UniProtKB/TrEMBL annotation:
InterPro entries: RCC1/BLIP-II, Reg_chr_condens, Ub_ligase/GEF_domain. Transmembrane segments: none annotated. This is Uncharacterized protein. Keywords: Repeat. Pfam families: RCC1.
């Protein structure tokens, strides 16, 4: 049974009750997570994620998933750092985002990715030139290539959901 679907600029993903991720559509930047497959006319299992996932997100040309263990995987176009892998890169298969744990949610915008952990902390990476959040320690930089903790102004309650758009 499918429990979640999300759409990028030209690709779609689905998450099943068992935690399997499926992708189809255009994947010229690797956003399908199917290796060298650039176009999939029907859903194909993203089998390189070897653990069940609890949440998925699709940006314009990149994708992300949160595993049941609380870690995140990203893949696709990382030109602006939106994969959170520490460098400008493109990945055609899901790749573990180092330094994040206890995650419960992920959201992808056009050129940025936002993660939410069990403590309600927000972490983000990618292009911040248009006001997408990232840490004050990176102020002046246009891109955050690794997820940066984003602090909400006080007072605030617990963050329960993150969203991003392009």
């Amino acid at each position: 049974m499918v429990v979640q679907v999300c759409c990028g600029a030209g690709h779609t993903m689905a998450l099943t009750h068992q935690g399997d991720v499926y992708a189809w559509g255009r994947g010229f930047e690797g956003q399908l997570g199917l290796g060298e497959v650039q176009v999939a006319a029907s859903p194909r299992c993203v089998s390189t994620i070897r653990e069940p996932c609890i949440q998925i997100a699709a940006g314009s040309r990149h994708s992300a998933a949160v595993a049941a263990s609380g870690v995140a995987f990203t893949w696709g176009d990382g030109l602006c750092g939106q994969l959170g892998l520490g460098r400008c890169t493109k990945k055609s298969v899901p790749t573990l985002v180092e330094g994040l744990s206890h995650l419960v949610e992920v959201a992808c915008g056009t050129n940025h990715t936002v993660f939410l952990d069990t403590d309600g902390a927000i972490h983000s990476c990618g292009l911040a030139a248009r006001g997408q959040p990232f840490a004050a320690s990176s102020m002046g930089a246009r891109k955050a290539f690794k997820p940066q903790r984003f602090v909400l102004p006080k007072p605030h309650g617990s963050v329960v959901e993150v969203c991003a758009s392009g």
